[in-house]
């Protein structure tokens, strides 16, 4: 085994020790806190506040294990949790956490992981540490006491040099620990996947959800194509046909009626400008150039500047999402802002964009009259369908009298880090 492979295996053993330490240092306290908080649920509802906090902490530990499993061993563990509901009510939050079957699988994993994670993580590291200790300590211990090291010094009673036997056995421990480390770490990752990954029922529900959102996305795409065809036929195409006819007529009139020909050419020039404007508007409706050039930050700021009311824009995005997600987020924000202008009677609005490491979140709010709701065939229903194709969610809070707050979330990763986030007023 070369030096590079040895360092890699030693690093894997160190990761195993981290798994063992977390299994005890974090697992035992979290398990105790979870059991106590669940036991307090009947006690005047105190547990309904404490239990979600404890169970979400268990979920965070499980997510950390998912990250380690993917980064360290290549074992991917999907997240099976139900989406977080809209609103911040503690009762709704408790029902969401306690009613999710994946929560109880997390608790079972936490319980079983205490012994399993400790043993699988500790064994390879212990072999390396104990073996290296023997190699380093045995000669000095033999020189001082005349014996070897650890459990092997009695070999000297059989005429075998305790130091030599200790060095050989310690080296064997080191050599055994090097391949054991990655193997046991993968075994722990697979054990975690057996409890933390989605169940068959969850996968079936997921497939059904994807089938539904796919149908809606296909229908939306077909409707968008029909809209583009209609706009082209009724707008730019009709103007271009009229333009061609005017130019042809002007050619015929050029010699015998120059004034009429000049007037027709002027109309043709005006029609060409109008057609070009309509084509540009159509392209912007498909994928705005500002979105491609400046990203979601610049696109939303351009939207804010185009509205007749002041819009505060705050953006904290360390990078850019993939183009389809970016486009979906842009048009969702655009529709929400359009509803503000059309229906809210607001004097001011605001948009907040951020990313928590897993999800892009956009909050669109206004100080209008409130009462907004998702109705079939409405603009917000279209936003919901657009986001569902990306596993996104939308929550609308709009009590009578306002304010109205629309929260949009899209699971995604970011790329192309920017130098710094920005915020400002549009």
Automatic annotation (TrEMBL):
Protein keywords: ATP-binding, Kinase, Membrane, Nucleotide-binding, Phosphoprotein, Transferase, Transmembrane, Transmembrane helix, Two-component regulatory system
Encoding gene, per UniProt annotation: desK_6
Top-level class of the enzyme under EC nomenclature: transferase
Residues covered by the Histidine kinase/HSP90-like ATPase domain: 332-412
Every Putative sensor domain range: 22-196
Gene Ontology MF term list: ATP binding; phosphorelay sensor kinase activity; protein dimerization activity
Species this chain originates from: Actinomadura rubteroloni
Enzymatic reactions: ATP + protein L-histidine = ADP + protein N-phospho-L-histidine
Domain of life: Bacteria
Matches recorded under InterPro entries: HATPase_C_sf, HATPase_dom, Put_sensor_dom, Sensor_HK_TwoCompSys, Sig_transdc_His_kin_sub3_dim/P
EC number: 2.7.13.3
GO cellular component: membrane
Keyword Aminoacyl-tRNA synthetase in annotation: no
The name this protein goes by in its record: histidine kinase
Alphabetized SUPFAM superfamilies for the sequence: ATPase domain of HSP90 chaperone/DNA topoisomerase II/histidine kinase
